[in-house]
Structures are given as C-alpha cells and as structure tokens.
Amino acid sequence: MREWMTALFELGVAASLTALAVLALSLLLKPLSKKYAYLLWLAVFVRAVCPFFYTSPFSVFRLFSFMRTEGSQLTVAAGSGQAVRLAGILGLKSAGEGAAAWPAAGGTLAGGGTGAAAQAGADFGALPGAGAGEALLTALLCVWAAGVLFLLVWGICSWIRLRRRIALAVRAGDGAYESDQISTAFVLGFFRPRIYLPAGLSGKKREYVLRHERIHIRRRDPQLKLLAWLAAALHWWNPFLWLAFSLFVRDMEMSCDERVLDEIGAEQKENYGEFLLALAAPAGFLAGSPLAFGENSVRARIRNILKYKKRKRALVILALVLVLAGICLCLSNPSGQEAVSIIGGADGPTSVWVAGRGELPEASEEEQLTAIVQLWAAAAGNRNADYVYERLTPGLQARAEELGIERVPGAEEGGEILTMGWSSPFLAGTPIVKLSVSEPVTAEITYPGLTSDGNWWAWKDYIALERTEDTWLISEWERREFFSITSYEDFREAYEDWLPDYLNSSLAGENTAENLVQKDIAGEDPEYYEETFHTPAAALEWALHLEGGEAETQMQEEGKALVAYQFPDGEIEARMVQPGLSEGSGVWLPEAVVF
Q: What is the spatial distance between Cα 247 and Cα 145, in angstroms, rounded to a whole number?
C-alpha cells in the first residue's frame, strides 16, 4: 500500500512539473499553430501514468533538484541538492524477521531525547508508529479510490444521458446522424465515433461542421481525449492535471479549427467564426462526457481563428523542432541525478538519493563524508552485502569473509551472491553517525535493532575512510555487538547516543509494550513472563541486556519503581513502570534511565 501511494504521488509530481514545463513552452509557441501545443500536452498525461523512461542529460527535470532517476524510473527524493536526507529509509521494512517503525524523536528513554538520537530525529524526520502510519495510508487510499470512482460514475452517467438524447437519431446520406433533441454538433464514441448534428443543419454550416468533426476522427482525438481524462481522473486531487486537461482540449479544438481553415482557405475565417457562434454548445451540455466533442470555448476559438494565418515553411520547421525537443525534455529522466539502491527490504529495494556516485555537488567535504557514511551505515545495518562490499578498499575486500561477508551459491548455476550477518535483530531505527573529519577520517555508527519478540538491541561499527580518485572508501572496519552488557563503561558506549523506547515503539504495526502486556494476560509461557517481566530488576536486565550487576529496587506509587543497578565500575538508575497494570498484567518496562 505504501509503495502504491508513493508511486501515485511521484507520478503526480512528475506530471505537474511536466505541465508547468509545457505551459512555458506553449507560450513560446503561442504565435504559431495550436497543433504544436496540442501535441506537447500529451507528454503530461503520459507522465501521469507511466513511470519508466529513458535518461538524458537534457531532461527538464534536471531543473528540479528533488527529482531523481532510479533505473528507468523518475522518483522524488526528500531534501535539497546540498544534503542527503535518508527519507527512503524511514519506515523501511528490513529483510529480517519483520518490520518496525522508527522511534519518535524526543520520546526516547534517555530523559528528554537529547544527543545524537534526538538530532537524527530532527534531521531526518520521525514517523508515527507503524499502526498509525498504516491506518493513515489506508484512509488516504480509500479517499483516493472514492474520488476516482465518483468521477468514473459521473462520466458514465453523463454519457448514458447523452446517449438517451440521441437514441432516435437518424443517419443522413453524408454519414452523420441527425437529431432534433440536440442544438449543437458533436462526436461521440470511442471505438466507432460518430458525428451527431442538430436536425435541419445545411449549407456551409453543415460543410464546416463535418470537416471539423471528421478531422477529430481522423486524428483519433476521441481516443486521446478519453485517455487524457482517465489520467486526470486518476490524479483527481491534482489541479495541475485538470488545468492540463482543459488546455489540452482547448488546443485540440483550436488546432482542428486551423486545419479546417487550411482546407477551406483563410479568407473564410469570418464565415467559419459565425458558424462556431451559431453552434456553440449550451453551458455544461457535454460536461463529464470525455467521449464527446462539442463546440465549446467558442469565444477563445473565434479569437484564435481571426488571428490565424498560414505560416511559412521555415516557421513550421522551427515549430516542429521545438515540439520534438520539448517532448524529449519532458519524457526523459535526468541523467547525473541517479539514485543508489542500497537496501533490499521485504517490500523490495529502497533507495537513498545522491548525485552520481555518492558525491554531492556544491557541498562541503564534511557534508559529502556525512552523506557517504550515512549511506554505508544504512546498507550495513540492513545487511546489503553488495553495497557494503563495493565501498570497501581492496584490502578490506580481501578480508570480506573475516568481516562477515560471505559468498554463497546463487540462483544461476555457478553463480554466487554476497550475504552478511544474521537475520535478527534487524535494523529498526536511523543509524546514528558520529563523524570525525580530522586525519584520519573516522566514524562511529550506532545501530538500533529489534527482534521479533519485541526486544531492542544495539551494535556499533567503527570505521575509517580513505580518499580515492573520485570518492571515499572504507579502509578500516570493526564491529562490536552489545548483546550482553556487564560494565558501566560498556553501557555508556552502547546507549549514550540512543536508548530503547519500549513504551512508544511499534513492531509489525503493534505497540511493543501493548504486545508484551497482551501476551502476559493471555498466559503465553507464564513461567518465562513471571521470571523475566514480573519484577522491576529482572525486566530491566531483559530490556537493556544487563548481566552480572546488583540491583536495588525501591517501590514507589502503584505501578512505579526505581531500580539502581550497580556495575563493578559504576551505577545506572532506571525508572520502571507497569503499562498494563489496569488490565491485570504484571509486566514491567523501563520508562527512563539516568547514567
């Protein structure tokens, strides 16, 4: 669902930007024939439904720094061109045992959420819990579907009403159908479009209208109009699409008028204008009927007719060149703004956006290094072995197996793929990077992780970076896992930048604390829950992976306790609460920690 809504949003953004570009190009073509602008508008509706195009250094989307190319697809990247925001990682489902929402900034256990963890939340944005996020997405999807359904029903009902009005139309000798129930001429139909005329229309007026409507049919205008209307209906919330549709139909009609004048002679334009005025459709007559063409927008069309004159061949060639160039600009994705796909999640690859190979144009070296380390940290945290391996120096690549990157048989015979690490715990928060740009360049990366039983874990990477000709590579890499903490020094190193938030985090759409409470109430493994969660000290050891220390518990008001945990080299103090006390659960969880 998230992928569908993201794709729809990105298509809408691409189509909106294309509409603005076409509007600007059509102003350049204004002195020339409307048929050129009419052709340009088609690019808007193609962009609205098709995400895949070729790349080009001359794409109009190079003007917009937030547009990126991933393969053959145009996508939207959050942030500016001088800073990488890892928006694509937020809310990512890991390739581990499940998916977890990002912890909310400021709601951490570390009493106020200061430090790097809170800064990461402020920098990159925090998502609500997975349950709330999915509920919001579901609501948005329902609203979108209701809007599309309403427009489709409205269009079909309007078409049916119009069909009933012409049900008794009689075919004339020239192939048109006549009816005394209509006051204007129009074309109706998709597979076999027909011309319908008011009864009694004759002479020059009949000649003009037949020429006009037959040009529509020859150019496949009924089919193009319907497809454009469907694209606009798909993006019914987007005013740019409806503006584009209105101008597309207007330019379609005007270009058809100009074609008629080419056939009958420009000297007949006053007579032709009178014909348009006489056959103007009543307001709203064809509203909602994307299969019908009538004589609407008459005033603008008459003005265009009176100004029309046949252009010289040189101007025609120039106009065609501009139109072709405009279509190429609008239908190509920008090269040089490619995305690097670094994360293989449960729902497919997620991308982080950079310009080129990880470098940021017009960015300082520190900004570039920060972006590169953030990219690598996201890949390492999600165990994307291919990306991690690619960013290592040859010396580290030679030690890949020692570092946890293994080659295993691939799907193809004789082929191999790279894998790394364990499947659990999986990354469940933004990796926290502490960068030092002094020589040598080093970084400390903290990874918040979760397991399927709702237990938070932490591990760290300590890396050094080495400058190559065009980028930076990882030249040193050491990993440390804090799965068993037996000293105050290790506790500070594991949690000084980040602390688990059991009360506000979510796992697979369920609040972590609520999930534990419900399992306790349901009597799942009662011995385990009693030993692990029903005393404040044991629950603290389970939640923060403490071992070997001595705990002293001070009970406070009902459902609250203060636990002092003494390591050989220091002490921490934790405030413990019972989130499910009113429901009959004895589960204790940490609310805040001071160290």
A: 25
